[in-house]
Amino acid sequence: MAVAKRSATDRPAAPEPLVRAKGGEPAFGAEDLLAYWLDAGQRAVLFLDALRQRAENIVAHERAGKPPLLDFDFEVVAEARRFERPTNYSLLRITRVGEDCLGDCLQPGLRPVVVFDPRAGHGPGIGGFKRESEVGLALRAGHPTYFVSFAPEPVAGQTLHDVLRTLRRFLEEVGHRHPGQPPVLYGNCQAGWAITMLAADCQGLVGTAVLNGSPLSYWAGEPGVNPMRTAAGFTGGMWTAHLLSDLDDGRFDGAWLVQNFEALKPEGVWSKYADLFERVRAERERFLEFERWWNGFYMLGREEILAITENLFVGNRLEQGLVWLCQHCKVDLRRIRNPLV
């Protein structure tokens, strides 16, 4: 996952000025200098107003309890807080798109689609916070669609194994609702490797799994080109995550993970604001929509972040088949039998 950045092909040849020089021809007189500074001043005011609106959106989202940022109506079909080993996850069924009821849109016989959103510092919603999203495309194709969401605060003491058990229970619930139709699973970022771990444990999975931006090998790549690897070595690796969790009474603030994403590509942070300033009128709504999700920070439990750090980012144990879910089962990628895309 990285800071949102538009590709070069999406950019106009040159920014459209808010104030044009008289005559439209290049000139170097005082009038053109005045037009330049007037244009820059107007852009600065609109740029700062967009940042003000972003701050107000963040505060409003927090006061509302940080609900899932979905552009679709939904109902809760399974709440993991009521499970024997409770977690902060829930399974949602998409019920309505705007004013359109789904009853006339779904095509009988199509397999269900389950979208797993990443729990990596942000809140749920990136897979369905606009109509042109994984949820929207699945609905447009006529598939019954489900969304795996989660609450801002973890259940005290929940572990990575508890989370994986929860996700399996959700898939069993979808299977009961659609017998004989293996679901299509969309895993974004962190959710992708979570689905992979389910497929590689002692029970396995059925149905096609689509992994979007989901790393499975954490020591891959050329040495010396990833700034976070060097930073982790200097700051103590797992020790840092343990300390930050202890300082927050067993919780790990997801804002630290978001900061790490930005540290992976610092120039992306600059480009985000530069693009907004350059095309402030055209980019404002897209910027605000994305930032509402990007700055909605969620917590992880100490046991979760330590297991993730030890087994994945530091230990690279997933690739080696050394992740133990319990005393009797470990994850082995060679067990995977369902298709991965």
Summarize the topology:
Blueprint: H1 30-63, E1 73-79, E2 89-97, E3 100-101, E4 113-116, H2 134-140, E5 145-150, H3 160-177, E6 184-188, H4 190-199, E7 209-212, H5 227-235, H6 238-247, E8 251-253, H7 255-264, H8 266-278, H9 280-294, E9 299-301, H10 302-314, H11 317-320, E10 323-326, E11 329-331
Helix pairs in contact: 1-9, 6-10, 8-9
CATH topology call of the largest domain: Rossmann fold
In this structure, how is the largest beta sheet organized?
Answer: 7 strands, mixed
Distance between the termini: 18 Å
Q: Encode the helix/strand succession as letters.
A: HEEEEHEHEHEHHEHHHEHHEE
Number of strands: 11
Provide the domain count.
2
Q: In CATH's first tier, which class of the largest domain applies?
A: Alpha Beta
**Uncertain regions: pLDDT < 50 for 5+ in a row?**
none
Large-scale geometry: globular
Give the integer mean of the pLDDT values: 86
- Structural class by secondary-structure content: alpha/beta
Radius of gyration: 23 Å
* Percent of sequence in beta strands: 5-15%
The CATH architecture of the largest domain can be given as: 3-Layer(aba) Sandwich
- Counting H and I runs of at least 4 residues, what is the number of helices? 11
Which range best describes the helical content: under 10%, 10-25%, 25-40%, 40-55%, 55-70% or over 70%?
40-55%
Summarize the structure.
InterPro entries: AB_hydrolase_fold, DUF3141, PHA/PHB_synthase. This protein is 42% helix and 15% strand.
